[in-house]
Design goal:
CATH class of the largest domain: Alpha Beta
Order of helices and strands: EHEEHHEEEHEEEEEHHHHEHHEEEEHHH
CATH superfamily of the largest domain: Bira Bifunctional Protein, Domain 2
Helix content: 25-40%
Shape: globular
Strand content: 25-35%
Number of helices: 13
Structural class: alpha+beta
Length: 357
């Protein structure tokens, strides 16, 4: 099978995200799969599909430092991105990719791992969707369904600015921010740290394509984007730059357990599952779920699946076992995939909103 390789090089920040969003919209059942390679010319902050900007990002810092904030159509957490990451985007017709998200990660991560190893970096796949080197993270990946395409995004971490990353994220105090920066320094590694020098991008790409051919059983062929693809990328730029999209998850934060009426309360909670952080905003009435919003840095396919799960819990008793059973039924009944997240995890996040501080 042919793999079209589109190397966009260094592009403006917005386009570095718009590339795979636009290309995915052009994919049809008979299309050749695409691998796009790109890096942003200037830094920015990117939030996951299901996150709330106000809860995750220090917007004042970003504004003061001219760091735009964009929301992607892929799950995961908020991250600072700059020219020192080489993004890899696999864009496949749905029927030509593995059927389940849990199978996407090990398959498409393997060529990255092999490339690192060939360059002398002891990288390994760490479920659900990370790459580690001797216990330190060197990259994460994400999957999404966009149009008729299955998309798998990742990167080669040439270098990383942990200090700026720590300033971009929303934290409760400056002391916490100092701890966050130190934790990032301790927990993350990069190619520069591992090799002692900045690697050659052309060398990375050549090795990577060789391993893509071997692992994915494809023939990588360099190509140029078509006029239709460039037009789709331009449309994606306009959509991603729309504040209504960026802040679509905006909700009013509330103090814990605000009493609306004698039997109605509104509260927030959270639970860290293997597949990511799950945040809940709960309106409860007489011990039952009345309304529920769910956000976080998890992956959910299809993207609207998390709202379907939340809707299924309306009217459910605030009982962890009952909530977990209903959530599991909603996941299975609607074909919703949340790697590393179960109904029990969702139930824990809901119940966390009912626990008094």
């Amino acid at each position: 099978m042919k793999l079209r390789v589109l190397d966009f090089g260094m592009v403006p920040a917005l386009r570095s995200q718009a590339v795979y969003h636009g290309l995915a919209e052009t994919i049809g059942p008979d299309s050749d799969p695409i691998l796009s390679l790109v890096s942003p010319q200037t830094p920015y902050v990117c939030v996951g599909m299901h996150q709330e900007v106000a809860k995750e990002v220090d917007e004042e810092f970003c504004k003061a430092n001219t760091l735009p904030i964009y929301r992607r159509h892929v799950g995961g957490g908020a991250v600072y991105l700059d020219e020192n990451q080489l993004f890899t985007h696999f864009i496949y017709p749905r029927d030509k990719a593995p059927e389940f998200a849990v199978n996407l990660y090990p398959l498409f991560i393997e060529p990255v791992v092999r490339t690192y190893k060939e360059m002398g970096i002891n990288a390994n796949y760490r479920p659900v969707n990370d790459i580690h080197v001797d216990g330190r993270k060197i990259g994460g990946t994400g999957a999404a369904s966009i149009g008729e395409a299955t998309v798998m995004v990742g990167s080669f971490m040439l270098d990383f600015d942990t200090e700026t990353m720590s300033k971009c994220l929303k934290v409760p105090s400056e002391k916490f921010r100092d701890k966050l920066r130190q934790t990032l320094d301790d927990y993350m590694t990069t190619m520069v740290k591992q090799l002692g020098q900045m690697p050659d991008r052309a060398d990375i790409k050549a090795r990577f394509l060789k391993h893509c051919a071997d692992v994915l059983k494809v023939e990588p062929v360099y190509d140029q984007p078509t006029e239709d693809e460039l037009a789709a990328i331009a449309r994606a730029e306009a959509e991603l730059a729309d504040p209504d999209w960026t802040y679509m998850k905006a909700r009013r934060s509330v103090a814990h357990g605000v009493k609306i009426s004698e039997h109605t309360h509104i509260s927030e909670g959270g639970h860290k599952a293997p597949g990511g952080m799950i945040r809940t905003r709960l309106v409860s009435h007489d011990g039952k779920v009345q309304e529920l919003d769910i956000s976080g840095d998890f992956t959910c396919l299809p993207p609207e699946g998390i709202d379907m799960v939340a809707a299924s819990l309306s009217g459910c008793d605030l009982d962890e076992a009952a909530l977990g059973a209903v959530a599991d039924a909603a996941l299975a009944g609607n074909g919703i995939e949340m790697p590393g997240v179960t109904g029990a995890d969702i139930a824990k996040a809901v119940m966390a909103a009912t626990t008094q501080p």
